[in-house]
Amino acid sequence: MLPSESRLRRREDFATAVRRGRRAGRPLLVVHLRTETDPHGPGGTVPPARAGFVVSKAVGGAVVRNRVKRRLRHLVRDRLDTLPAGSLVVVRALPGAGEADHGQLARDLDTALQRLLGGAPRSCNPPGTDTSVSRNPGHDPGGSAR
């Protein structure tokens, strides 16, 4: 079980993490991470990282959804100390998470967190890299004769 101070409960916190945070998608889950620019809360204390979970009916019935939530809570609890202080994490389970075992969920969660906490997202290109297509209107990239 997650400690009480590490749980997301308010709708606004979920919305902040999802709308303003970074996202990493995996086959079984999507992780949203919002790192606070000023982690100091009221009184100058540093709040712990907090996590919340979204498991819809698309994952399965009530028993399956609760099992997925328990597994995800356990996995996130073990990884809370790797998250920046004051950060908000929302883990959204995708439909395949209901049939996945604990190890598969752990791999997807670890990969998503590494991507969010590590370097740049995969879609970013390093500075100075030219990935543009030739914009020359007279240029025929297929090389066909006219």
From TrEMBL:
Q: Which family does it belong to?
A: Belongs to the RnpA family.
- Any Pfam family from its record, for instance, is Ribonuclease_P
Q: Does the keyword Methyltransferase apply?
A: no
- Give the enzyme class: hydrolase
The coiled-coil regions, if any, are none
Q: Which UniProt keywords apply?
A: Endonuclease, Hydrolase, Nuclease, RNA-binding, tRNA processing
The biased composition feature labelled Polar residues covers 126-135
* Region feature (Disordered): 118-146
Which superkingdom, per the lineage?
Answer: Bacteria
Q: What is this protein called?
A: Ribonuclease P protein component
Q: Which GO terms describe its biological process?
A: tRNA 5'-leader removal
Instruction: Give the encoding gene's name.
Output: rnpA
The UniProt function text for this chain reads:
RNaseP catalyzes the removal of the 5'-leader sequence from pre-tRNA to produce the mature 5'-terminus. It can also cleave other RNA substrates such as 4.5S RNA. The protein component plays an auxiliary but essential role in vivo by binding to the 5'-leader sequence and broadening the substrate specificity of the ribozyme.
The beginning of the lineage is:
Bacteria, Bacillati, Actinomycetota, Actinomycetes, Kitasatosporales
Gene3D superfamilies noted in UniProt? 3.30.230.10
Could you tell me what reaction this enzyme catalyses?
Endonucleolytic cleavage of RNA, removing 5'-extranucleotides from tRNA precursor
NCBIfam families from the UniProt entry? rnpA
**How is this protein annotated for GO cellular component?**
ribonuclease P complex
GO MF, one term, reads: ribonuclease P activity
Question: Could you describe the subunit structure of this protein?
Answer: Consists of a catalytic RNA component (M1 or rnpB) and a protein subunit.
EC number(s) per entry: 3.1.26.5
HAMAP family for this protein: RNase_P
PANTHER family reported in the protein's UniProt record = RIBONUCLEASE P PROTEIN COMPONENT (PTHR33992)
PROSITE patterns given for it?
Answer: RIBONUCLEASE_P
